[in-house]
Amino acid sequence: MEYHRIGSLVMKRRLVVGTAVSAGMVLSLSGCLGGSGEEKGSGAAGGGKSVVLAAADVVRKSSEKTSQVQTVKAELQTEVTVPGAPGAVRMHMRMASKMRPELAFRMTVDQVSMGGKSLPGQSGMEMVMTGRTLYMKSPAFAQLTHGKQWVKMTAAELGAASGQNFDQLLDQQKQADPSDQVKKLTASKDIHEVGKETVNGVETTHYAGTMSVQEMAAKLPAQQQERQLKSFQKLGVQTLAFDLWVDGKQLPAKIAVKTPEGSSTKMDTTVTYSDWNAPVTVSAPPASEVGPMPKLPNLGNTPGA
């Protein structure tokens, strides 16, 4: 009985770690297609090449503008259905990030469910990353840490839990940088303006387009391209499409992501951004409230990790 309990905790911890350090992968793997085919067709037909070029220039400038931002808050909702899985995995989380000069964030996972059932110990999870240390908070940890709900994972422990080194995991998290997200969208050859819309009280211009995963990966640094392509290949995703809402300051207000109809793996993600360059404080929880991550066996070698 104890063996199965430990095994369950290992799997839970891996999913939590993946949530925290792979937010960028969540966005990338969730594809990009918010608008309907009819809406996309009307925009492309109405503008021709000049409209596509003008829209592409707006997206490029938005990526450049976003790369200068120091902080941002984001709300993410995602749903993923993989063939053979017992049901769709749904997640809702909120994050406040300091992107420069060094990545740091605090995150709350409001809900994680599979097949409509909440996953114990993960809904309500809180995470803080500062320097090269990740802190996680959940009532599920108290039984293993002498009553302390926060646990601490160093760079080495984090790498062991995921089977990757910390720098690789950090690269994945950095892909969640809004400027990188918008930069990927510049791979589209059919991006076009949909219209003017209000997002969270902010006037924006809505753009939409499609792209192949190869085109998108080509926009990433060389060391990330192969890993990104392999991730898509495992999921059987070949084509992505997206919707992007850009505000009057050339900053993204929202990015919607979805796989095309008929895809075996279905992914649907929406990220809404706010509070650009507003003060964000990220600090470790008090030491008295933190316990060490329990040492569990063979964290990096369990099949399927």
Low-confidence stretches: 1-47, 297-305
Provide the CATH topology. Answer: outer membrane lipoprotein receptor (LolB), chain A
The CATH top-level class label: Mainly Beta
How many strand units? 13
Mean pLDDT equals: 74
Largest sheet report = 13 strands, mixed
Globular, elongated, flat, extended or rod-shaped: what is the shape?
A: globular
Overall radius of gyration: 20 Å
The amount of beta strand, in percent, is 25-35%
Structural class by helix and strand composition? alpha+beta
What's the helix count? 8
Quote the distance from N terminus to C terminus. Answer: 22 Å
Summed up, the domain count is 1
Share of helix among residues? 25-40%
Q: What order do the SSEs take from the amino end to the carboxyl end, as H and E?
A: HHHEEEEEEEHHHEEHHEEEE
Layout of helices and strands:
Blueprint: H1 2-21, H2 23-29, H3 37-66, E1 71-81, E2 89-98, E3 104-114, E4 117-118, E5 125-130, E6 133-137, E7 150-153, H4 155-162, H5 166-174, H6 178-185, E8 192-199, E9 202-212, H7 213-217, H8 222-235, E10 239-247, E11 252-258, E12 266-274, E13 290-292
Parallel strand pairs: 7-13
Antiparallel strand pairs: 1-2, 1-12, 2-3, 3-4, 3-5, 5-6, 6-7, 8-9, 9-10, 10-11, 11-12
Describe this structure in words.
With 305 residues, this protein is an alpha+beta fold. It has one domain: outer membrane lipoprotein receptor (LolB), chain A, CATH 2.50.20. Helix content is 33%, strand content 31%. The protein is built from eight helices and 13 strands. Strands 1, 2, 3, 4, 5, 6, 7, 8, 9, 10, 11, 12 and 13 form a 13-stranded mixed beta sheet that branches. The radius of gyration is 20 Å and the shape is globular. The chain starts with a helix and ends in a 13-residue tail after the last strand. Residues 1-47 and 297-305 have low confidence and may be disordered. Keywords: Lipoprotein. Residues 283-305 are annotated as: Disordered.
